[in-house]
């Protein structure tokens, strides 16, 4: 049977790939196989991968909110748009979990022009700049033009010293981050040019999805017990991750959630971080 991908491309349906994605959410083998059998009974030639994903999410949610939240991570990242400003803040949170000091949205004057830097990092006396490329659709990829453009910005900044993190420092490293994927040419050019690249699944076993799971730094947009409007309200309040919510549950009072719903949301949040 053929499946229509987000890009419109027709590919052969891969049962094992679907099982693996469900298993990665935390579902056991028996649950994953049960869900897959249910989906396969409803499938037809040319069914969209989006429809399969949505159905898998619904069935998983009936079993476990936490597993559904993990399964929903990539879509949850899209919820940090549409402009991507919240995605930049989220990436700063991911880096902070790894021991970096961070600053978001800093404007610096380069050798030729001024630049707005999405995120600045400091660790082991090394300052890195992060440039985020946010895509609002899952089929979009960052092509080679992205690292070529960002390399020119980095080159305009790296030879100067700035007042950063309470000292005069230069920027010695550049990292490009996207919520989706890079093309092969983009990765090849970035690596050849000394740029670091971070995407949904790159580097292998150390991409965004891996870092989020490893450090339990899930965005609030993955919570299944909140509506989209409520998630958007939390983002505006600067509650970006589930850990932010756990540390300050009063965010839920601010958006006027009922007592019972607050209990359910915090229960899901705590289960995810544990």
Descriptive key words:
274 residues, alpha/beta, six-stranded mixed beta sheet, three-stranded mixed beta sheet, 11 strands, globular
Describe the structure.
The chain has 274 residues and is an alpha/beta fold. 47% of the residues lie in helices and 21% in strands. It is built from 13 helices and 11 strands. Strands 4, 5, 6, 8, 9 and 11 form a 6-stranded mixed beta sheet that branches. It has a 3-stranded mixed beta sheet with strand order 2-1-3. It has a two-stranded parallel sheet with strand order 7-10. Strand 8 and strand 9 (167-178) form a beta hairpin. It is globular and about 60 Å long. The model has no long low-confidence stretch (mean pLDDT 96).
Write a brief structural summary.
This protein has 274 residues and is of the alpha/beta class. The chain is 47% helix and 21% strand.
**Share of β-strand residues:** 15-25%
Helix count from the secondary structure assignment: 13
- Average pLDDT, all residues: 96
- Mind telling me the C-alpha Rg? 20 Å
How far apart the termini lie comes to 39 Å
Percent of residues in helices: 40-55%
Shape: globular
Blueprint of the fold:
Blueprint: E1 2-4, E2 10-12, H1 15-24, H2 29-42, E3 47-48, H3 49-63, H4 65-71, H5 73-78, H6 85-97, E4 101-109, E5 114-123, E6 126-133, E7 141-142, H7 145-157, E8 161-164, E9 167-178, E10 181-182, H8 184-192, E11 196-198, H9 208-215, H10 228-236, H11 242-247, H12 250-254, H13 259-273
Parallel strand pairs: 1-3, 6-9, 7-10, 9-11
Antiparallel strand pairs: 1-2, 4-5, 5-6, 8-9
